[in-house]
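debug: dumping io for the single-chain case to check the tokenizer round-trip. Nothing else runs in this session.
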Amino acid sequence: MTSADGDDTGLLAPGWAGSPAATATGDTAWLQALLDAEAALTRAQAVLNLVPSGAARAVTRAADAGRFDVRSLAERARAGGNPVIPLVGDLTKAVGEEYGEEYGSYVHRGATSQDIVDTASMLVAARTLDLVLGDLDRTAAALARPAAEHRDTAMPGRTLTQHAVPTTFGLKAAGWRALVLDARDRVRTVRDSLPAQLGGAAGTLAAFGAYGASDPTALPAAYARELGLRAPDLPWHTLRTPVADLAGCLAFTAGALGKVAVDVLTLSRTEIAEVAEGSGGGSSAMPHKSNPVRSTLIASAARRAPQLAATLYGSMAAEDERPAGAWHAEWEPLRDLLRLVGGAARDAVELAEGLRVRADVMRAHLDLTHGLIVSERLSAELAPVLGRARAKELLTRLAAEGRPLAEAPELADVDLDPTHYTGSAGALTDRALERR
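debug: decoded output
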């Protein structure tokens, strides 16, 4: 077998394969995060004079993912149910062989496996969310351009798939941008709140007191500072707010980007063709096609994300002080969510920056209903003259006849131009674009 004997390279996951998020959430990245957590724990204890500073330096130097066999760790993790158990043995051995057994004895001192896995999860999440934040900012900036440029570009407003009344593409793009900014703000809030995890075997910090800490409660904050994470208020082994917050913001982001994607998918259909992706993908059998691939992949992520988030929410029902199964059930869906949203955010940048708008097609589509797209306005204007019932009867009859309203003598003096009936779309677009 080739490809590193079956490593998950994303063959069936084009939405994230090859993206920065794929690297940030790969096995090597998770392994490095586990090692970063172990090294930071030793450094934090050194700051509080619980271990020699030389031991902290030794563990930090040894904590390099390139020195360890990730496949072997994964296979040996089956015995104890998590990768930290074999990793601690390998890291202890590496430190002992290079710096002496005494320094090796300080690896993982006082911690439990969940402290390290949870902290590593927060590190991986933080690093991935930083990528997502950058891409959401770029997407919002890219969407601001067509929103401003097409502030007054009229197009059919569609409700329940049918033409309703005119709107503008500027307002549509401004709405997309607003959703992207909503997602960015949620991601930023969660990113800044991600905590380290440290509680020891049952969340009491007892082992650190046994090892000589005069105030073990000072250690989690020192640990968090070493990692650039927030200091936890309490150990959260079965208080899974941080994971639930991640689930929520990631699922929201997938949905927000999904809204943009499905609108583009609809508007880029051959028979509509009001927009197009800048670099459509080809077909293996039909050379005339230019598929909206970026939108397709984003829409795929949006459909998968809620189910992954549901698993993470379900794991909040975690029994006792440390759970059996609920915690373990989080690892894969959390990584999948981070990968999917990271890939979707990168695709959204390409989609927004390359989007092509066909204003002439939008204008032509306004005439497909032969003037009926402004029937709402006609009803309001004719009611004072003809009475509400007669006005409705007239418009209903003209619609049934299927002839252009411009040919109706009763409407000879009425403004039927759909571009004159976009309401406050321009003002709403301006207001939306003020947001930063």
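debug: round-trip ok. The chain has a mean pLDDT of 94.
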